[in-house]
Specification:
elongated; 125 residues; S16 Ribosomal Protein, Chain: A; alpha+beta; 5 strands
Length: 125
């Protein structure tokens, strides 16, 4: 949004920077912009620079699913911007940053012990 050498950029003290997704598109038709924003700004609110976009409706093998300006992403990471968990995975898939292991998430939705025993009995019969 503002170049680094502009008066507006240099006069404002930026807080923690995040590389995250801002949602766009219509209802039930999501489209996300990958933006650099302050961590305190709203999800779809003010941002510093747009560095790419992500269209989850396209197939996984489509080249237009994730489009990223790798040079600008590396620039902002060098200035201390932290990518969100989902953006980090997308950037790793696009080979912009080193791949990270898939995060371990709790399996809260897995059936509990009693339900697993019942399923095992049903499958055995």
């Amino acid at each position: 949004m503002y170049p680094l050498n502009s008066k507006v950029f240099n006069s404002k003290k930026y807080m923690a920077l995040k590389i995250r997704m801002a949602r766009g598109g219509a209802k039930k038709r999501p489209f996300y912009r990958i933006v650099v924003a302050e961590s305190t700004s709203p999800r779809d609110g003010r941002f510093i620079e747009r560095v790419g976009h992500y269209n989850p409706l396209l197939p996984n093998d489509n080249a237009e699913r994730v489009v990223v300006n790798a040079e600008r992403v590396k620039h902002w990471i060098g200035h201390g911007a932290m990518p969100s968990e989902r953006v980090a995975l997308l950037l790793a898939q696009a080979e912009v940053i080193p791949g990270t292991a898939t995060p371990t998430r709790p399996k809260k939705s897995a059936p509990k012990k009693k339900a697993q025993e019942r399923l095992a009995r049903e499958n055995a019969s």
